[in-house]
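Q: Two folds, back to back.
A: First:
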Amino acid sequence: MKKLKYEYQYKIIFLLVISFILIAAIYILNMPQKGAVPTAASQLVFEKAHVSELLTENASPDYWTEGLRLGTQEVIVTIDSGEYKGEELHVTNYMNAYANVDLQQGTPIIVRLDLDTQKHPYVVYIANYDRSFVLIALALIFAMLLIFLGGKKGISALTGLIFTVLSIWFLLIPLVQRGVPSILASILIVALTTIVSLFLLNGFSLKTLCATLGCIGGVTIAGIVAYIAGIMTPISGFNMTEAEELILRASDSGLKISGLLVSGILISSLGAVMDIALTITSAVSELHDMNPKATQTELFKASLNIGRDAMGTMANTLILAFAGASLNTLILFRIFDYPYLQIFNSDMITVEIIQGLAGSIGIILTVPFVAALSSVAFEKNK
């Protein structure tokens, strides 16, 4: 009982220290850089609104858009947020196949506002549906299910997930923007999020240490494989679909694009590698508890067998995730009936193949690495 009390206190102290460091780092890294000029996008004003009245519409379903209505609508919208909250404004809504916000009375929307020559607001265009309620509700359902079914472990997992998201958005991206090599920044964030996430789940323990080292090792392996494959192909962050826009921004910032491909693989493979590393370490821990006399070789063989069952599904999950992200491109290749020689050597498909296979290789090699590390650590800890 006393041991559990101390472990709880250590966890609280650790979380407070990490939170303080994280807040300080976020504050420093997200401060405006000296001489930085606000971007044009940051000056745009978007507000919540809803359709208070549908005046006229000239829209009808179109066969080639699978029933989407195309045309125009004249509506009155009421602004629901910001400086002009409560104002009613007239707007023409243009609906096409690619920007299709089909309005009805009461529809919640996001609008872009500007001021005319008389300093009166007007709606430049209707940007999107207001999806905030659905997204927040979905996130709350996810959180409640995780907590309800996972108990304390679920709360720890949710806290770790929030920490990971905050670290990527407020630490990793600002570091890359400020010119820190993206691969180095990604390794640091992977190590940080792994330590915090696994500590939250298992506290200070041998299991946490082995899973953390195994996870960092597995992700690093994936990054090394991707880096070598990128040199040999050759391919880099400049071959990614967003590279052109990033190049325009890199000219007036410290952003380095070349390592972004490897960085993406490090981040995307983190979850799967962490899963399999913790699975194997937990298995070794349970086997050791059930049979404290088990030798290092016995623990290694047993954990390796368990890892073999898990590695297939984890690798499959990772490759399918990358395939799903590029599904539209794959469909277009089939529609245009491109030769396979061109398909498999195109930048887009090569990037996806390297991402999927490098991450999967990292997962596969994590299994024997973590199995060996855990079996040695637990056997020595008799």
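A: Second:
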Amino acid sequence: MAVNFKFDVDYIREQFPALSITVNGLPAAFLDGPGGTQVPKRVAEKVNEYMFYRNANEMGAFKTSQESDQSVLDARGVFAHFFNCDPEEVAFGENTSSINFKLSYAFARALKPGDEVLITNIDHEGNRSPWRVLEDFGIVVKCVDIDPETITLDFEDFKAKLSDKTKILAINWAANSCGTVSDVKKFIAEAHKYGAVTVVDAVHYAPHKVIDVKEIDTDILVCSAYKFFGPHLGVVYVRRALGDKLVSTRVMAGDNTEMPLKMETGTLAMELVNGAAEAVEFIADCGRCHAEQLTDELEGLSGLRRDIVAGLRAFEIYEEGLANKLREELSKIDGLKVYGPGAEAPRTSTVSFTIEGVNSNEIAKFFAERGLFVWDGDFYAIATINNVLGLEPAGGFLRVGFAPYNLMSDVERVIEAVKDFIKTK
């Protein structure tokens, strides 16, 4: 199916005003998606529409407040389809890291000294630091190792560190450092045998692959809308049974004691909630354009959930073609190392590499002059890039990330730029 899949990239690209930007007479190639994608016009228009016509605080008796409240309820419903959960299990926050900090404070009330939390060396610090803070309360924080050659989680090390003392597992679904996708369902099932609560960081996973919180059976999942065409906003799924009993960090009032309001501190950025929901609607719209090519995969699905799944699968198939081509060509270049698991392993469309003897920031600057927007450094995957691989002196990785608005010509430009850069050395 993927070989003959026809992706309407022109339809996608025409919705992103940023693609008109040029650098030194060259079209900008936005390959910085792992740090945050560009935004389609409809998302910005949705934010503006809210600000112009429904901007009000919550729970008022008047028109704009009631419409604002309804828009937030509608947004919860949209994300319920995105996660495959109930609307009451969806809450919003400033960003994923802030949500995790609030969760860790909530769990601090329930845990006791000597209890253990498991984090991993493949994670972004946004899913490590909030749990490491619990060490201040006497909680023991252990870390699951990774294979430095493939940058994959060591399942045997995980099992060795899991015990009856483990109360929380904070685990990454897709690594923002190089795109490694972990089999979180397997880790979650093992953690649940010991009664541990599972927290899945899906920040890098969400823009590229379908999320089904029921299928992986996680208790909590976090992601950020700005990684998938939305504004800067964090979104969290909390299993209702867990959320109902969790003593959350909240304003001590009588109108926010139930899920999901108890998971939100203060007044929401409601304009951003509207924009985030519209980003999901954008994905669904793209799904409707490609659904007829994905009939087998969509069997049994209906409505918005079906459209979202179709959109994400269409993105995944298209992006994989770009990423695979880049990895293949980069692997032919002497002195260049591509990081991550082998071709048979699941990955996102993020390609990370280093060039021997070169600080990655030099490459990023060279690319920038050619209109190629890429990231360099550790991307807050500090445990992976700096601690395990020891690449901090070399500037970490050079990271190229593909989104559905990218072109095969962007891949060709990257390859050409790498070769030209090496000639200067």
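Q: And?
A: The longest helix spans residues 303-330.
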